[in-house]
Structure formats: C-alpha cells, structure tokens
C-alpha cells in the first residue's frame, strides 16, 4: 500500500479505468516500436487481469485475443481463452480464434509467481518467456511482431539470442512506466522470420552463381544465401551470419571442393 501511494501510474490507472498500471507500459512500448497497428490481429499471452488487452483494443480495429490459465473478466471486442500456452489444445484454440493467416502481433506481460529467491524467480521468468516465444513462432504471420517481459539475470543474454534468431529486428527496452526498482525488461522482436534457416546454423552448399557485388550465391531449401570469397561451382561449408526476410548472409568455414578440382 505504501508503494501504491507513491505510484503515479497506479493512481492514473485507477482514474482512467484501466485494469492495471501495466497498460501504460504497452502504450509506451508501442509508441516507440509500433508493434501494434490499426490493422493488427493481436494475441496477448498471460493476459490476466487485462490491462494490456484494454490497450491492444484501443490500438487496433481488428481481432484481439487474450489467453491465460487464470480467469479474465469478459471484455467487449475481445476473445478470451482460458488455457495453458504450452498445451497443444490451447495453441489450436488461439489459431482458430485469430484465423488461418495468424496474428500480426503477439504480446506477453506475464510474470511467474515470485518466491523471493532471485535465481529461482529469474529462471522461472526465462522459462515463461521461452514458452511465449515458442507459442508466438507458431501463431505469428510472416513479418509479425513480438513483445515479452523478462527478468534480467544470467540467462537473459541467451534468451535474447534466441529471439534474435527468429526476428529481423530485436531490442531490449525498459519503458518509463516500469518501476525503478524492478528488474523487468521487455524484449521487442519485429519482422518474424519464416526462412528455413537460422543465424548460427551450418550447411554444405554449392555456389550456383555470382552476384553483381562479387558474392557467391547458394540456395538452402530455395532460400537465397550470399557468401563472400567464393567462386561459381565451389562446394563449401558455411555458417549463417545474418538472416533477413528474403535472403541471408553466411561465411565460409571450410572449402570442400574447388571448381578446378571438380574439373579434374
């Protein structure tokens, strides 16, 4: 109660009719990153009590779906699903609610029940964020956006790298409405990648043609990969350095066969 008495956003939420002060975090995140647009279909994971759902409903004219294992009081223009996002039946319900094309934005402000043991709470936060990421990759449209809350700690960088493997643009951000003493931070991923390859993966490929800039071009499951310092016909083992929506860049880690050797 003492903290609430000093909390401007708590009283502002009361005065403006939001279910929680967290509403202002999403407003601020969206103002900076534009993850939800007027034409976005939005899924909010771990949505109870509904503060982010209220803001999502203000930001878009399209579908908003809220999911939680806890009960969420009904809200106009919002589809509520009560279920566990790690269960297949819940994911199927989300897909049915949002439509065949998928969601434009998946957001998650969920937090684990706190034990007071920081290492345990951090690990639980990461596990929850990983479940949100896994669910998002199954329901997002190509080029879709993702926002998730995570507690900072030793496992944060590894989680951030996982998100970087799925989105073109990734940032960690702390909105003004987050309490100064809080260890929470929000990971924002934009432009969901549907490419068949991911950053850091290795492949054996053949350079099929040379690009105008002098880089070799190979294909992985039909997806274009640009590789510098190669020649047409050369067989190489590559490691993917960066992935964009329509192409990727990779480096040679081993030369398997040169064009001259092939001719012999």
TrEMBL record:
Entries under SUPFAM superfamilies matching the protein: Nucleic acid-binding proteins, S-adenosyl-L-methionine-dependent methyltransferases
Catalytic reaction(s) noted: uridine(2552) in 23S rRNA + S-adenosyl-L-methionine = 2'-O-methyluridine(2552) in 23S rRNA + S-adenosyl-L-homocysteine + H(+)
Localization terms from the record: Cytoplasm
EC number in record: 2.1.1.166
Coiled-coil segments: none
Alphabetized UniProt keyword annotations: Cytoplasm, Methyltransferase, rRNA processing, S-adenosyl-L-methionine, Transferase
KW Iron (keyword) present: no
Residues binding S-adenosyl-L-methionine: 50, 52, 68, 84, 109
GO-annotated cellular components: cytoplasm
Broad enzyme group: transferase
InterPro entries in UniProt: NA-bd_OB-fold, RNA_methyltr_RlmE, RNA_MeTrfase_FtsJ_dom, rRNA-MeTfrase_E, SAM-dependent_MTases_sf, TRAM_dom
Signal peptide range: none
Chief localisation class: cytoplasm
Single GO molecular function: rRNA (uridine-2'-O-)-methyltransferase activity
Pfam family, one: TRAM
Active site: 149 (proton acceptor)
UniProt family annotation: Belongs to the class I-like SAM-binding methyltransferase superfamily. RNA methyltransferase RlmE family.
Function: Specifically methylates the uridine in position 2552 of 23S rRNA at the 2'-O position of the ribose in the fully assembled 50S ribosomal subunit.
Annotated protein name in UniProt: Ribosomal RNA large subunit methyltransferase E
Gene that specifies this protein: rlmE
